[in-house]
């Protein structure tokens, strides 16, 4: 799907905080310098928008394990489209639900497998084997802490709905073969690409940045309409009609927000915008794929 989202939203609607970004980037590089394996977590609803263009430069020659989290928020059909697409990119994504634990054991196993090679190289150089060291990194709020908790099998890392909740560095042992930095690395979500930035905002994956709820919610409705027109089989039937008894098909995003505000929220457009975004993030509109593989 080619989105023309930002054509309608020329305004620079996402305000980034440069000081915060510089600090996050410095922390991330420090974390990366300590590890052999990088568990890169993306949001399965938007695997491209949660990819940072500098990632391969940052990861260098370390082993990278690609994790698409929130698999519960996409359909099996969309999941298999992504599997096929990543195959063409010569990548193998691991799908997880870090909240419930699905797919997490496979991540642990993949990280430990990287340790086998590492220790072979160490032995070849006459060095003693050691556990492989890994870090979980990803955009704000994609589920990094939840994944760490699941890898550890207990709740030690704060996991919150609030973006940007992360702490200082400590090694924790997952097994004889695997150690993990207990603090996830946050990828600063500053992106030139406003289409990607909008999707991050819709999914609440942009951390310490501010944005206009009404513009983001309008863009979301436009995206739903676009999906309805181009890939109706991949979408729940009329998701907005089902939830709000008001179909979006004949509206622009902006005019839909106003109509919804009249219909449900006594004309309060801001409230309608916030409600739409909250409902989407909670999965109350069904599993809407904001992104589909591009060829
Ligand atoms: N539905 C669903 N929710 C998830 C999943 N993984 C995490 N969450 C929820 O997403 C929210 C954010 O999760 P965190 O683990 O705090 O995310 P984080 O990436 O560590 O966030 P920061 O510390 O802000 O960078 C929490 O409410 C989690 O319960 C998942 O696989 N599915």
From TrEMBL:
At which positions is GTP bound? 69-72, 185
Q: Which GO terms describe its biological process?
A: translation
Gene Ontology molecular function: GTP binding; GTPase activity
Pfam families recorded? MMR_HSR1
A GO term from the CC aspect: cytoplasm
Q: Which InterPro entries match?
A: GTP-bd, GTP-bd_ortho_bundle_sf, GTP-bd_ribosome_bgen, GTPase_MTG1, P-loop_NTPase
Q: Which CDD domains match?
A: YlqF (cd01856)
Subcellular location, in the record's words? Cytoplasm
Keyword list, A-Z: Cytoplasm, GTP-binding, Nucleotide-binding
**Domain G, residue spans:** 134-195
Checking NCBIfam families in the record gives: GTPase_YlqF (TIGR03596)
Q: Which PANTHER family match?
A: DAR GTPASE 3, CHLOROPLASTIC, MITOCHONDRIAL RIBOSOME-ASSOCIATED GTPASE 1
What function does the entry list? Required for a late step of 50S ribosomal subunit assembly. Has GTPase activity.
Of which family is this protein a member? Answer: Belongs to the TRAFAC class YlqF/YawG GTPase family. MTG1 subfamily.
Query: What protein name does the entry list?
Result: Ribosome biogenesis GTPase A
Originating organism: Amazonocrinis nigriterrae CENA67
Query: What high-level taxonomic lineage is stated for the organism?
Result: Bacteria, Bacillati, Cyanobacteriota, Cyanophyceae, Nostocales
